[in-house]
Amino acid sequence: MADKFAVIGLGQFGSAICRKLSEKGAEVIAIDIDEDKVDAIKEYVAYAVVIDSTDSRALRSQNISEMDAVVVSIGQNFEGMLLTTVKLLEMGVKRIIARAQGDTQRRILEKLGVKEILSPEEEVGKNVAERLMNPGMMMCVELPDDYEIAEIAAPRSTVGRTLKDIGLLEKYRLNVVTVIQKAENDLAHIKGIPQPEMVIEENDELVVFGKAKDLERFISINA
Predict the structure, then answer these.
(1) Which CATH architecture has domain 128-222?
(2) What are phi and psi of 189, to 5 degrees?
(3) pTM listed for this prediction
(4) CATH hierarchy code of domain 4-119
(5) Do 128-222 and 4-119 have the same topology in CATH?
(6) Tens digit of pLDDT for each residue in 146-179?
């Protein structure tokens, strides 16, 4: 039986979540008060409906409390997002994931008891800053205790060498999670679980895990 999710708020962020969940085989109910946004997403989801999510009766009509999780991705109307979240909490929805824009919204949601809070703008800002400081970095996810998972373009000095020869763990205290091979048409191919004899090729990207300072040191030394 497919997982059942509701996504409330169909801006660019909410619509992207709907599409990705559907691609993964989930049953998705897409909800927004804007009919145009609902029409734009309806072919990608199991069901799309125009309702006011601050209306408890309207939410109950969609069996919202039976969802495995509800994502509240209302971005422009904080009052509407807050009221919607409160209604979901009152209904006993088992898992609520809410979008916060800034620290104030995050703190209010935390006070309400929301455990999972998304801040996409903040994450995008961090990634842009990382890419400005380290142009070879394609993606970066910050973890607790100053650890990071980062996707970086293979430095020129590593091309043609094996992972064993590069010695990421021994020399830089970094673990290679995987290696991504980029083709000329921009398609990506995962090379699989890294082995010591794996050779780094031109246009490869390394997905590495370690301390932020060690990652920066590896990039600077091998730039």
Answers:
(1) 2-Layer Sandwich (3.30)
(2) -130, 120
(3) 0.68
(4) 3.40.50.720
(5) no
(6) 898 989 889 888 999 999 999 999 999 999 999 9
